[in-house]
């Protein structure tokens, strides 16, 4: 959650370099976790979501860098921006250490983090931006974050529903297969007495 002691939804504003630095921290985490999922997950739907995250958030990062350059801004750290970056680094480490529950933990954190950035955009960041180009970019980015949030919610809900169905379905007991039939092999028999007769006759 948001722990910056200076954060309120009513009066706080952030300078534009700090706004961009916060969003850069968010995007850095989305790319890093997306790379980790690519290397760890075996779920096709999770891999596709992570691929979208890598592509979209790398593009967003380039947009933010361009805004910094165009407007001659230098990123300024804030307690909240630092918290976002540290929290992101911690998330990557925790995901990398998981043995079970990797996919659902990843999605749950995607949901929480996208909810947080939407709250920041709606309550503080967009109205704090004074430069028209920066404000416009933030407004254009909001639907992308919202779409990512919706995708993660739907994926997690589908996975949880599938797990509940699997738990509620009794295991199917199959009858044991019958023992294999032993088919006698009909081989020609050689009469011993005929061999003896033939041998003594010679």
Textual characterization of the structure:
The protein has 202 residues and is an all-alpha fold. It has 6 helices and no strands. It has helices at 16-40, 44-70, 79-97, 102-128, 132-168, 192-201. Helix 1 (16-40) runs antiparallel to helix 2 (44-70), helix 1 packs antiparallel against helix 4 and helix 2 packs antiparallel against helix 5. Mean pLDDT is 86; it is low at 1-9.
Largest sheet: none
- Report the mean per-residue pLDDT as an integer: 86
First and last CA, distance: 107 Å
How many beta-strand runs? Answer: 0
Features:
mainly alpha; elongated; disordered N terminus; 6 helices; 0% strand; 202 residues
Give the structure's gist in a few sentences:
The protein is an all-alpha fold and 202 residues long.
Fold blueprint:
Elements: H1 16-40, H2 44-70, H3 79-97, H4 102-128, H5 132-168, H6 192-201
């Amino acid at each position: 959650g948001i722990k910056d002691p200076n954060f309120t939804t009513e009066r706080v504003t952030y300078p534009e370099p700090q706004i961009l630095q916060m969003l850069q921290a968010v995007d850095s985490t989305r790319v890093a976790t997306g790379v980790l999922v690519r290397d760890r997950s075996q779920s096709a739907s999770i891999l596709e979501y992570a691929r979208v995250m890598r592509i979209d958030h790398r593009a967003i990062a380039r947009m933010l860098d361009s805004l910094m350059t165009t407007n001659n801004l230098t990123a300024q750290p804030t307690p909240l921006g630092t918290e976002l970056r540290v929290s992101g680094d911690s998330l990557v480490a925790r995901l990398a250490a998981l043995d079970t529950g990797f996919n659902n933990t990843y999605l749950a954190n995607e949901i929480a983090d996208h909810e947080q950035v939407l709250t920041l955009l709606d309550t503080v960041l967009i109205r704090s931006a004074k430069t028209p180009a920066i404000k416009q970019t933030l407004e254009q980015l909001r639907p992308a974050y919202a779409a990512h949030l919706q995708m993660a919610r739907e994926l997690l809900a589908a996975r949880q529903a599938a797990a509940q169905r699997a738990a509620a379905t009794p295991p199917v007991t199959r009858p044991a297969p019958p023992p294999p039939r032993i088919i006698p092999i009909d081989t020609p028999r050689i009469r011993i007495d005929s061999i003896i007769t033939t041998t003594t006759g010679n």
